[in-house]
# Entry
Amino acid sequence: MADRVAEREYDIVIVGGGPAGLTAALYAGRNKVRAALVEAKGAVVDGRLLGAGGQLLNTELIEDYPGVRSILGPDLAEIMTEQAQQFGTEMLAASVERIRVDPDGTKVVETDQGELRAPAVIITAGGNPRKLGVPGEAELAGVGVSYCAVCDGAFFQGAHLAVVGGGDAAVEEAVFLTRFANRVTIIHRRGELRAQPILAEEARRNPKVDFILDTVVEAIEGDRKVKSLRLRNVVSDEVSSLEVGGVFIFVGFLPNTGLVDTHVDHDPAGYYLTDPLTMETSVPGIFAAGDVRSQLTRQVTTAVGDATTATIAATKWVEERARRRRAGDEGPR
Ligand SMILES: Cc1cc2nc3c(=O)[nH]c(=O)nc-3n(C[C@H](O)[C@H](O)[C@H](O)COP(=O)(O)OP(=O)(O)OC[C@H]3O[C@@H](n4cnc5c(N)ncnc54)[C@H](O)[C@@H]3O)c2cc1C
# Structure
């Protein structure tokens, strides 16, 4: 970051530069509002933001983004960033540490480079799949270790896959993966699945799904692609090896929803609850889009759609607030 961003005023501040944030920046620029996007992992070089794209940067191939038959995640990130920058939204490389709401409703976005102030904020800070934290997981990510069945399942035609986890996501995704794989083994650390009975039953009835319970993965093994898992039975302590072509890990997702210092309504897993028409959270003027939002699925297409709605709604909200203020209504919104 070349300059500190200290004490700047905008209409909308966008927190996070993944697909949702970049879409919000594009629409804000085209709406001609004074907007800034703040990305923690970026760097601004010659006025251009580099390193944005969020989870796209960890994604091998995207084959389900309409209009683009097949593209590497980092390439899509670069195109989205360039397109977003064309229309005038200011791109800042800084990490947002806290968002506070002043008594007059102004949102103060505190970053490691200074403060940004705006009546409206769109939170697009995404999140990260929870990791197992075992040897081989990081090294083989993208070459057999995956956290997204919808995204990567089709790359494993005819394979034997492992799914780690016992909740709804793990069981649902295991069944989904049987569209591609010959065999899917669900590995769960407890003796019973945590998933809803109806989902567990569907998995049990599927002839391609089998289970290894009371078992944890201790290591993911392979050289440039996944070959096997080292397993340990937590009851007997017995160690074994399972040969697989890939492993899908569904042990939770951690949304980056801890930034606002006032209460924002969220679901039990911590995702923001939003108005379906506007993407506004329970805090007036704070909107949320993409993977931070409570919804059925988390995809690039949904992130982009959410952000479109959120930005148009935030723009109208800022204009309406300004109109009310001009008319002498000084309410907190
Ligand atoms: C391995 C993998 C493969 C996938 N494959 C596909 C696929 O094939 N098709 C598909 O549709 N989807 C796929 N997905 C899902 C898709 O990538 C996500 O749904 C999408 O990226 C969500 O976009 P987002 O903008 O909401 O969040 P993110 O992509 O998570 O972006 C959030 C951004 O916010 C920034 N940020 C976070 N905290 C702060 C902070 N405090 N201050 C400033 N910036 C911050 C982050 O650095 C990041 O750049 C895949 C995901 C993974 C992990």
Summary: The helical segments are 19-30, 73-85, 149-152, 168-177, 197-205, 300-326. The mean pLDDT is 94. The pocket of flavin-adenine dinucleotide is lined by residues 15-21, 38-41, 52, 54-56, 58-59, 62, 64, 95-96, 124-127, 129, 146-148, 151, 256, 259, 290-291, 298-301, 303 (CB under 6 Å). The longest helix spans residues 300-326.
